[in-house]
Fold this sequence. Notes:
By secondary structure, this protein is α/β, with parallel strands linked by helices. It contains 14 helices and twelve strands. Helix 2 (88-103) crosses helix 4 (128-148), helix 4 (128-148) crosses helix 12 (308-322) and helix 10 (283-292) packs parallel to helix 12 (308-322).
Amino acid sequence: MAFPEMKMPPPGFAIALDAIRISHMNRKPDPPRLTVRAIRCVGVEVPMTYALGTSRGTITKAPLLLIDLDTDEGVTGHSYLWCYFPAAIPAITNILEEVERVAKGERVAPADLWSKLDERFALIGVQGIVRMAMSGFDVAAWDALAVAADLPLATLIGSAPKRIPAYNSCGLGLMTPDKVADEAEKLLAGGFRALKLRLGYPTLRDDLAALRAVKKRVGSEVAVMVDYNQALSKAQALERGRALDQEGISWLEEPIRHDDYAGNATLVRELETPIQIGENFSESPAMAVALAAQAADYVMPDLERIGGVTGWLRAAALAAAHRIEMSSHLYPEASAHLLAATPTCHFLEYVDWADKIVEEPLQIVDGFAVVPQRPGTGLTWNRKAVEKYRIG
Length: 392
């Protein structure tokens, strides 16, 4: 899907559109009244079906923090955070104890609670584990509101459950060409029509060998995205990007430092392959700066970094104002609902990391994520599995 070129919106236009959209989302339908009672957290470490080997290292287990937001009205909202390292779980849990202290007794009004917490943590900064904790709380708050309203989250925020194009982002790390091709073939199970391949091998020749092996195995009808995880210098990205321009890939993700907006803007101008960034946007103001710099062809915010559901809605408004297609990063269960309400919806990034500890995993049919009709995000924990993988 391509959008016609347009002039940059006048100053303040995106902010105004953001405010209008958030207001609309909060009005239709009317969220029920709930009151924060308590936050409960459990850390788990779930074995990955496919190891994730990137230029930054190899991960074989997903450390997740499961968050339950209890309300005085008896409704509980659920969310989880991917914590990258098991050692981060107790640190984020400690921050959530402070979130509970500040929010206890307050109405579950996510935008207001975000502002209150933003003020509480102003001196330490809403970054890193503080932002992660706030985002996990925000997603659980929205889930609770949708459960109380007996509506899917997509419906609560102004859309409806629908099918979202999805690509399989499990595995496909740095391996020999034959092994990565074998894994790519396995990942097409379930009808996927798109995959993401990690690159960043020592040489361009190695990158091309892996990519070509995958494309040969899966066929020309399957879209292939590639991700460098910020492994390259700008000069390397230009060299490898020009070679990749000849390979028919769908996008080139984070080839250089995510916050080098000037460098990414150069890649946007010089390369034919679309540049994808956004998983590291720290709330919507960072995304606004990147878009003003024309540093991306596509964007893909991450729920824990963009600011939960509240931050996502602001980001979606920015993407709509700039007419730039927006995908998700991880958290497919909640992100599917959010993409359903995103005007420039592009792709859902699918990973199965939470499947082992939820009652009903997100379903993929013919390459599309099927947003469930269940209330909220559809997340409920498989308590037996949670105990099996519990840590700490």
